[in-house]
Amino acid sequence: MSKLIPDLVFQSIYDITPQQLLARGVRGALIDLDGTMASHCDPLPPEPLTPFIRSLQNAGLRVLIFSNNRRTRVSRFCAALGVDFICRAGKPFPRGFRQAAAQLGLQADALAVIGDQIFTDVLGGNLAGALTCYVETLDRRFFWVNLRYQFERRFIARGRKKMEDGTQHE
């Protein structure tokens, strides 16, 4: 069950700073798209996303969008953002995480996985040995997403406590 507990919990992706990641030895970020960076209904990146991504890159972090969604959705979004991506990543299974680490030229323990789902982003990131950052989903208003959240909320609460206590990777 500890693999379902995130290392860090944030209200929004914009609450994550490059300094927080660098201080934990992170050199690359695998960022989920739908529900994390934008609603699954938004075809293009929201205005504040580009400066956020650039702040990570300017701090020396390698950024890769890491999504289970289709190529048509992910490629259009990432082209507008100007970043590389892996679509149909197969989260939480290890293959996609290994591919992402290789694409960035980093070991998994130098990666942060940033996403809005416990059972894909956090579980997969923890299994890979990466730092896991959970962010509140942007799609909570949708019935199925809210239902999923009901199953995830205990793990999120434990992640918040873990973050407050200053522990990492149980």
Tell me about this structure:
This protein has 170 residues and is an alpha/beta fold. 42% of the residues lie in helices and 14% in strands. It contains six helices and six strands. The protein has helices spanning 18-23, 49-58, 71-81, 94-104, 118-128, 143-165, and strands at residues 8-10, 28-31, 62-66, 85-86, 111-115, 131-135. It has a six-stranded parallel beta sheet, sandwiched between helices. Strand 5 (111-115), helix 5 (118-128) and strand 6 form a beta-alpha-beta unit. The longest helix has 23 residues, at 143-165. It starts with 7 loop residues before the first strand and ends in a 5-residue tail after the last helix. 42% of the residues are buried.
Helical content, roughly?
Answer: 40-55%
Tell me the strand order in the biggest sheet: 1-6-5-2-3-4
Ranges where pLDDT stays below 50 over 5 or more residues in a row are none
**SSE order, one letter for each helix or strand:** EHEHEHEHEHEH
Number of discrete helical segments: 6
Computed CA radius of gyration, to the nearest angstrom: 14 Å
Structural class: alpha/beta
**How many extended strands?**
6
Sheet having the most strands: 6 strands, parallel
- What fraction of the residues are assigned to beta strands by DSSP? 5-15%
Summarize model confidence as the mean pLDDT: 90
Cα distance spanning the termini: 10 Å
Shape: globular
